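Table S2 (text version). Query chain:
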Amino acid sequence: MTDERERSGDPLKVYEIDGLSGDAELQQLVRFAADLCGCPIALISMVDETRQRFVAKIGLEATDTPGSMSFCAYAMREDSVMEVPDAKEDSRFSDNSLVTGPPHIRFYAGAPLASPMGDPLGSLCVISPKARPELTDHQRSGLAVLANAVMSRLEARRVILAKQAWEDAAEADLAASEKRFRVLADAMPQMVWSTRPDGYHDYYNARWYEFTGATAGQTDGTGWNGQFHPDDQARAWSLWRRSLQSGEPYEVEYRLRRFDGQYRWTLGRALPIRDEQGRITRWFGTCTEIHEQRLLSEDKDLLSRELTHRIKNIFMVIGSLIRLTSREDPALKTLGLKLSDQISALGRAYDYVHTQEGTSAFTLQGMLRELFRAYNMSGVERLRISGEEVFLSAQIMTPLALTFHELATNAIKYGALTSPAGMIDLTISRHDDMLQLEWLESGSIVQHVTERKGFGSELITASIERQLGGRFTREWLPTGLKATATIPFIDDYSN
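Corresponding structure-token output:
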């Protein structure tokens, strides 16, 4: 129809003008335009490539005409009101069938209607079957103002339509998204559920209903808690209520009743979904059956307790056998007591490691404090441990326990602990990839110094150097022994 139309496509589409028929506001505007200009006919004409449609009119029966007959197709390209005082005298319209036939147009005045982007849409026009002079300035200005009012009404409609289209698209996308979620949730091996922000359960996947045998709606709201073992209900409900109040993730193990009435151990977890302001919009959770794993874990704990009991008994039996044997042969008494003490030290180290079971590494300081507890008198800590907190595996603990038990017993016999004022400081430090333990005695006079390597020295050498691949040195100072054990340090001793 026009170059503008070809450039911008169909700008009328966004207004959906077919739905404007009978619009009361537009009807008032054309009535006022007719009265203002003293014309029997007034129209709001919207022009596309093939025809013009009258979305509001007065004084005319027709609802549209072919675009080739349109006066408004000319008016909408103007910057101001276009006037035709006598169409019979205008070469553009003199042979137009709307002039030569009904409604016998002689006078025409049209104010252009254009979109905010400048696309021509049509015009607000007044028509008379009688030729007449041009409009007064007041009438011309009034017609332009009314045209602006028409466009305000059309733009308001466009905004409403765009908002509705966005909401419809969002609703359709949400529905499609929810459908995808339900398909995905039903395909999962876990039971999946969802709640409103207040914790009201309103969705379960197919797996939940298959496992529990519940009917649709039976476990909505708070009905889910009735599916748990009576002994687990209060705890599960308490933890769920706490998560709702704090917004923290929910996790609990409970026994869930299966469709056949059997209770099965289950792990329940849930996370909150938040909007951009941080408000919780939903909770999504899963239930995973862990019955077999739970039973295996209980069996493992039982076996571990029994094994621990038996190992402790073995330490006691070996220690007792050594003491009894050494009593029968006085020549073995000293060696027997020493071996018995060393086995007791291993037993204490084992007790410490076992109580920390469940972690892959244990604190060296914790084991040594347990080992040295017997050497502290009347609440006075005579063996003081300081330095870096270090985690080591159980395999590293045993040779270190033997080494420092040997140093402590020697200190009682020959070193700092022979005197009530004697003290020992054990400092633990890391130097790159090496761990250093420095043993320093003070507060006493050295009573015995020997370079002879006895059983204890051989034990330390075997433990630190051969077993741990480290280095052990000792130096006799005037106040007592200074010994340093240096071993390779690995961040993860769990393997």
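Notes on Table S2: The chain has twelve helices and 18 strands. The longest strand covers residues 263-274.
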